[in-house]
Amino acid sequence: MHSACARAVVGGTTSRRDAVHPGVEIRWSPHRGGPTLSEEFHRIEGEYLEATVTVTPDELPELLLHVAVVRPIFLWGATGIGKSSLVRAFAESLGLECVTLLGTQLAPEDLIGVPQIVENRSRFAPPEMIAREQPYCLFLDELNAAPAEVQKSFYSLILDRRVGDYELPAGSVVIGAGNRATDNALARPMASALVNRMVHVHLRADVDDWLKWAAHNGIHRWVLEYVMQRPDHLWSVPPKSELPFSTPRGWHMLSDALHSYGENIADRTLWVLASGTLSTAHASGFRAFVKSARHAFDLEAVIKGEASWPRDPGDRDLLYFLSETFRARLIRELPASREHASGAVKRFVMRAKSMLTELAEISVECAQLVIASDDEGVAALPSWFLVEVTRDLPRLAARR
Questions:
Q1: Is 213 helix (H, G, I), strand (E, B) or coil?
Q2: Across the beta sheet with 173-178, what order do the strands follow?
Q3: Does the global pTM surpass 0.85?
Q4: Each residue of 321-357: pLDDT tens digit?
Q5: How many angstroms separate the CA atoms of 309 and 316, rounded?
Q6: What is the dihedral of CA 163, 165, 169, 174, to 10 degrees?
Q7: What does the alpha-carbon distance between residue 122 and residue 22 come to, in Å, rounded to a whole number?
Q8: Between helices 248-261 and 267-277, what is the axis angle to 10°?
Q9: CA-CA distance, 348 to 342, in Å (whole number)?
Q10: What phi and psi, each to the nearest 5 degrees, are found at residue 137?
Q11: Helices 343-362 & 364-371, crossing angle to 10 degrees?
Q12: Cα–Cα distance between 318 and 399 in angstroms, integer?
């Protein structure tokens, strides 16, 4: 590799987001007192969440247990993060049947019922799905996507727990849910009268909660291992077009499809499935990860010198994936100050500089990716390491 190539690496500012994956990137630096992976994931979603107070899926059941039994709750959250499944699980935990009404599929008469003549007087007979004798959980899904007239029909049901002469059985709970307008989902404004009839709870996707759930619910090992490595890929900002985007639901769908195909799924089929359930950037990363797992080609082997960076042009996606993993490894293991580096870390630093030199011979872009600043121009790696890279890379390149 020429010295000019080395200078291009240490002087470049290309980030993985700009060069390859135009999506959200994580910035994690726990060695400098920064946030945990889970907290950083929450920051990403928080950019698109107007609520100042949120709850995780693990925190929601206890909140529902104490509040939903006395007051109706409205659950806000991004598309595909598990609102509906959490409500159904809560109802099951109480031994209640969960009756779901979709706001987008209702007309006002579906709630108030149809008129009947009884002793020369008319009265409304509520629909059978609502008028039940035993207590149950009434789940008003997509409530804020319903037309204004339908939302108005819910007023007495939500506040007074009754429709006409029918009153919900004692012990019943009422929970509404809906997506946010910021998620490019169907959402209509709710009248203040309806807003004020419910306790509003904002749910956020939590990678730790999801991984714990996934480990006990048959999620495919490739999906589980990938999200463990890239927790920032669990959820992505919904695009303004009709393209797939990553959500816990999307990963679950991909897992089901992988189980259906089995371990021998063709790479082309894997790419079709991943592209149909995830954002393009995350689908590309997942495809490269599976290729790495299948061929026992991982970063650890490169670090130990047992393997080299992939050079085949057909493995460029794998090269980018390994480069991203290398960057994450450096961020995780390098201390803020060189004085706090152990002997093992110092040996890793020497190997890392050699690896960067070798990587730049194949792709300057990938080498730049490893040491690039974050999207806000802040150095992701410790300054002492960047100084050493700037100083040593040209010399290491000249030796090669």
A1: helix
A2: 97-102, 136-141, 173-178, 73-76, 199-202
A3: no
A4: 889 889 988 998 999 999 999 999 999 999 999 999 9
A5: 10
A6: 10
A7: 61
A8: 160
A9: 10
A10: -100, 115
A11: 150
A12: 27
Q: What is the pLDDT of residues 270-311, one digit of tens each?
A: 999 999 999 999 999 999 899 888 876 678 889 998 888 999
Other Cβ atoms less than 10 A from the Cβ of 381: the count is 18
Instruction: In whole angstroms, give the CA distance from residue 108 to residue 102.
Output: 12
Segment holding 3, helix H or strand E: helix 3-11
Cα gap 199→64, rounded to integer Å: 10
CB 388 within 8 A of CB 382: no
Please list the alpha-helical segments (H only) found in 205-342: 207-215, 221-229, 248-261, 267-277, 280-294, 299-304, 316-333
Residue 9 · residue 360 · CB < 8 Å: yes
Of 298, 356, 304, the closest CA to residue 1 belongs to 356
Helix (H) / strand (E) containing 397: helix 383-399
Report the distance separating Cα 9 and Cα 370, nearest Å: 9
Task: Write down the residue that tokens 């659950």 correspond to.
Answer: 75
Element spanning 16, H or E: helix 16-19
d(CA 83, CA 204): 10
